[in-house]
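Data availability (excerpt). The following record was deposited with the supplementary files.
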Amino acid sequence: MKRIVLVRHAKAVPYGYEDDFSRDLTDRGRNDARKVSSQLIARNVLPDLMISSPANRALQTATIFAGTLDYAVDAIQTEPGLYMEFSTGEFIDYLHTIDNRKSTIFVFGHNPGISYFVSRLADGFYGDMPTCSTVGIDFSVDHWEDVFTQTGKLAFQLVPKMI
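Predicted structure:
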């Protein structure tokens, strides 16, 4: 089985759009990231690989998750395509390059991309993805090359307001 955990970055400051890439998390965003990642620990959902958009708010969210989930911060990989560039097809092509020894991957990004990926990968997902939403999608495959649209099953969705 392969699992993708897709995370929309936590709440960011509502200013600085002239340099959107550098926007930081708010205190609420940092707290939400700690709450959601703590729920993942309680569910024993741990990453084999973390991949993040290089934008500050996504990377800061990934760093908080890494700290909670005992994942080395310096092992977080950044992928520029996650900064609102990948189409769903390009994202799937990217997934096909992941080492098959990695079973659970975490991907940190932005809307609308993260919402598109969730709705296109998980069969029947029509939910909302507010900031710091975290969705796990399971695929009954042994190789990342066998992950395609609408073949995943929703394993969980965590939203900060639920916690």
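Summary of structural features: The first strand starts at residue 2 and ends at 8.
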